[in-house]
Amino acid sequence: MDRENTRASVAAYFEKLSQDRRILADALPEDVRERRSARGLLDVADLVRELPADDPRFDRIGAVSLAPDAGPDTPLSVGSAADELAYAFRYDDPLESPDALLDRFTAAVEAGASEFYAETRTTVDVARDLDSDDPTRALLAVRHVAEHLDAWEGAAVARAREAGWAWERIATVLGRKRQSVWSKHREGDHSPAIARAPRAVAAFAKAAITRVPTGRSHAAHPSPDDEEQLRVDVDADGGAEPLVLAAEAGGS
Global pTM? Predict the structure, then answer.
């Protein structure tokens, strides 16, 4: 990434914020804070242009808010926390230091980097970044995977259930115990057999399951085995008769 381009993008970012503040200052001439903040943000932009291009803060900001091929006119893409921090510069504290703000802004950009990363990286990019020699890319990839893993797993399980997979088969492929997988994902289960059953029939079936004298504790929710039986008992038309028979056979 070109450091000169990164510095130019950072300066342009603060200059744009200053312009936005000045518009508010013109609309609210009695509020001296707006004009003071607008002037302060312009001071930050001037400081950025005066700093050497190899200032480490520019490397840190550019690595998580600009694409590798970004040009000098490419706008920064930072998280909302960094935006709010920068926009509030000298609004309440007239003595706030531009250099101190740049330090805090750099840390805030890195903290919110996952937003930019998620918007600009494909699954293939993430896989490549996990093995990157660039620590920033590698760490962002790890964070991205950690933040999205549960959602990805839930979507994969949902697709498997819709395809008719039993909980045991899903758990085997995931390398985990069936009870664990079922407990985690059963609330989002929309498998075809359950979806076809009328609501009253499904409610009756779950109530009937708790009456089956299997010797195990009768929890409020059916077990994976019970739900698999429910899937078998519901006929193709969603009829209730097979469920009634199942309940009678397991009655106390």
Answer: 0.58
